[in-house]
Every structure is written in structure tokens, then in C-alpha cells.
Design goal:
With about 300 residues, this protein is α+β, with helices and mostly antiparallel strands. Helices cover about 35% and strands about 15% of the residues. The protein contains eleven helices and twelve strands. The chain has helices at about 35-45, 50-60, 90-95, 110-125, 195-210, 225-230, 240-250, 255-270, 270-280, 290-295, 300, and strands spanning about 1-10, 25-35, 70-75, 80-85, 130, 140, 150, 155-160, 160, 165, 170, 190. Strand 3 and strand 4 form a beta hairpin. Its EC number is 2.7.11.1. This is non-specific serine/threonine protein kinase.
Length: about 300
């Protein structure tokens, strides 16, 4: 339904004199194409993305440093086109999973810096009463200054507010990237907390940054990694991870490599990381830390090079 391409556009350096010959430069932009057909699907109840919702969000958040800017919106008969500055630093997916050597961990300082920026994005969304619905590494980019920006609001929803208080969102289906969905979004819950669901996605991204591995494919007990590490809350259990380490050492191939590297990473986490992930990646939303509690956690407040 959507595709992003990179294009070069020639511009004059003196926009105040468009009819005068000027120095011509090149601006590299990203052009995102969204099919208008998805709007029909959305209105019929068969779709999830709505490009017009994304356009409204981008217009509303112009000049917000935490949101990838939209310089121009164009359309033809079949599609909408959003023109944005190219993210010269790539996206978080490239950073976490794109390296040819995934066994080399990211530095603790860089992980901490990125995570704190992700929390600032969550705080911004909470202030605006927006549930993004698809906070995956693909939808966070790094600008020329290395700062995190969020993009792709086509799935986003407004969080209902009654008498000044944020309320639950009526469950309308499981949309977004499954490896980052909160478990309550794939169960039979009739309503959910949009801020808590977005926070869950960011905590899974923190896991990615810490291990350079996926946590799970589906947030369901039928998914082995989810069942053991999340459903049974064994993620920060030293005894369980030592068992996994021993079991993985008896296997061969990529599966052994993935399990082995994850168990090693889990066992090497600092006390602050174990505390944070242990209190946030819980299947029961009522027992999870809130965004405010995460902001005040030891991991966020402490210098990772000394913890």
C-alpha cells in the first residue's frame, strides 16, 4: 500500500528571486507514495492505514523536531505523495539489524541516548493524546544531527479524553508490526490503553538495541520466545537464561547462534537494564510500569557507563 523512494531535486539558493539566474544546488528528499485505494478499504472496515490521517498529523506537527517533517504533499488520481527530507542517518532498523556483524554490540552510551530520545517521542504523543499504533524500528529515523524522529502516522488514532482524563481506546483489530505489538492488542480485550501499548513497542525496541535480536515474532503464547521470555516472565531470570545458554550450546546453525547470543546478552545486562525490562515487558498491563515510572527509572536517570 505504500512505498518510499529517494529522489534528487534541483533548487535555486535564492528563493526570493525566482526569475533571476541563481546558484543551483541539489536537495535529496524522500518521497513516500500511499495508495488512495487503502482509504476505501479503511472506510469499508477492511483496512488499517489511512493516508489522509497521516497527512493531517503531519500538517498538525509541522516544525516539531521529534517528527519527520513533510515539506510537500502531492496527489494524482491513484496516490498521495509526501515529500520529506531524507533521513541521512537511516532508520533504527538499519542501525540494529543492518550491520553485517550483529555480534558486535552497540555501546551502552549510544543505546541509552537513543532510548531517552524514544521516551521523549512517547511523551510528545501522550501530550497530544495520540496512539501511534506502529512504533517499530522502521518508523524511527535519524536526522543529520543524529537525533531521533518518528514517522508514518497512517495507523494513528486519537486517544479519547473525557472530563480532561485520558480513557481507553475501543479495540478495533490488531494492526501494526506484530513483533512490536503489546499482547493486549492480539487478545480479546474490548479496550486498551494507547499510551501503554506504544510504550510496550518502545520497550521491545530497547530489547533490540540491547541484544541486536528480535524478542518475538508474535505476542502470543504459541510463539516460543514470547511464551518463555514474556508470558512466563523469564527474561531476566538468571537460572532460566543459564539453562537456555546450555541448551543452545547443544544446537547447530542459526537458531543456536540466536539463542546463544540472546542468553549471553540477558546474563550480561546491568542491574538497571534488568530492573527496567523486568518491570515493563510483562503480559499483564496492570502490573507494568507506566511511562512516568520508566522516566524515573534507574536506567534512565543513571549514566550507563557507570551503572
Amino acid at each position: 500500500h505504500s512505498a518510499t523512494t529517494t529522489s534528487s531535486v534541483a533548487v535555486t539558493t535564492d528563493p526570493s528571486s525566482p526569475h533571476q539566474p541563481g546558484v543551483v544546488g541539489v536537495v535529496v528528499v524522500a518521497v513516500k507514495e500511499l495508495s488512495k485505494a487503502v482509504v476505501t478499504d479503511y472506510l469499508l472496515g477492511d483496512g488499517s492505514e489511512n493516508p489522509f490521517v497521516e497527512l493531517c498529523r503531519l500538517q498538525e506537527y509541522r516544525q516539531e523536531s521529534l517528527v519527520l517533517d513533510c515539506w510537500e504533499a502531492l496527489e494524482d488520481r491513484d496516490s498521495l505523495y509526501f515529500v520529506s527530507p531524507r533521513a541521512v542517518g537511516g532508520n533504527l532498523y538499519d542501525l540494529v539489524f543492518g550491520s553485517p556483524n550483529l555480534q558486535v554490540p552497540l555501546s551502552a552510551k549510544r543505546i541509552h541516548n537513543i532510548f531517552v530520545q524514544l521516551l521523549h517521542v512517547l511523551a510528545f504523543l501522550e501530550r497530544r493524546n495520540i496512539h501511534h499504533r506502529d512504533l517499530s524500528p522502521d518508523n524511527f529515523v535519524l536526522n543529520e544531527h543524529g537525533r531521533i524522529q518518528v514517522m508514518d502516522f497512517a495507523l494513528s488514532m486519537r486517544i479519547p479524553v473525557v472530563d480532561g482524563q485520558r480513557t481507553l481506546i475501543r479495540h478495533v483489530g490488531s494492526f501494526g508490526t506484530h513483533a512490536y505489538l503489546a499482547p493486549e492488542l492480539v487478545c480479546s480485550a474490548t479496550a486498551f490503553d494507547g499510551v501503554a501499548a506504544d510504550l510496550w513497542s518502545v520497550m521491545v525496541i530497547l530489547y533490540n538495541l540491547q541484544t541486536r535480536q528480535k524478542l518475538y515474532d508474535q505476542p502470543l503464547p504459541s510463539d516460543g520466545s514470547f511464551r518463555h521470555f514474556v508470558w512466563h516472565q523469564k527474561l531476566v531470570s538468571r537460572e532460566f537464561n543459564e539453562f537456555i545458554l546450555h541448551a543452545a550450546s547443544q544446537q547447530k546453525g542459526a537458531e543456536r547462534s540466536s539463542l546463544y547470543r540472546r542468553a549471553v546478552a540477558h546474563l550480561n545486562w546491568s542491574a538497571d537494564v534488568r530492573e527496567l525490562l523486568g518491570h515493563t515487558l510483562r503480559p499483564n498491563v496492570r502490573t507494568r510500569w507506566t511511562l512516568a515510572q520508566v522516566m524515573e527509572s534507574n536506567y534512565v536517570r543513571n549514566d550507563p557507563t557507570t551503572s
